[in-house]
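Q: Structure tokens for this one, please.
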Amino acid sequence: MNNKRLIEIDVRRCFKALKTHLSWIFMSAILFLAIGIVFALATEEKQDMYKASSSVYCITEGGDYSATYDSTKLMMTYAEIGKSQTVLERANQIMGNRYESTQDILDLVDIDYDESAVIESALLRVNAVGPDKDEVVEVANAVAEAFVIEMSNITENGDARILDKAKFAEKDVNAQKNILKVVGIFAIGGAVLMCIYLVLREIFSNKLVTVKDGTLYGKINIIGVIPDFNNTDD
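A: Here is the predicted structure, written as tokens:
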């Protein structure tokens, strides 16, 4: 005879187990919250970051297709090396040689471009990201200006022009919000994991709680029962 116990999920018992062990769930949430704080402080930005963008436009007016195509492709190609030493040094000069090393500017700058639907033009964006709002605006504009000057020296026709200068910086990273989000996820995750553990423990428990547990769900007969008497003094 197969006397293996059937696995039956009693939702009420599971909820009762969760209610009984609320302190376990709370402690698990606190533990994972502490882990989340350590993890967030180690991986997330600890201060707000701001982003400013300038845009450079390349177009050849009145030129033939070949000259326009070459200028556009040159700017798009140069965008890949737009953070070159030459451009960064010129940008530093524009800002009055504020930085001791061009690496300090490089750490703030990112350059990308969109190829227009019209082959005759391309738009390049100079982005600067950092903790100082005024600094990133100045860096974005200086690098864009240095890029235009360098492009003019290369193409000798001034096809690259500044379309929009950065006037203000927008918050790119909200450090406090990101840290709280990570900590919250860890805390909730800790509570959920403990709930899952308690439910699984209840489902696979070998305790005899109901009559069906005692009879292996009708597979064996009950010989007798032991009544539960309350001990009271006469």
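A few notes: The helical segments are 11-20, 22-43, 65-80, 85-94, 102-106, 133-155, 175-203, 211-214. The chain has a mean pLDDT of 79.
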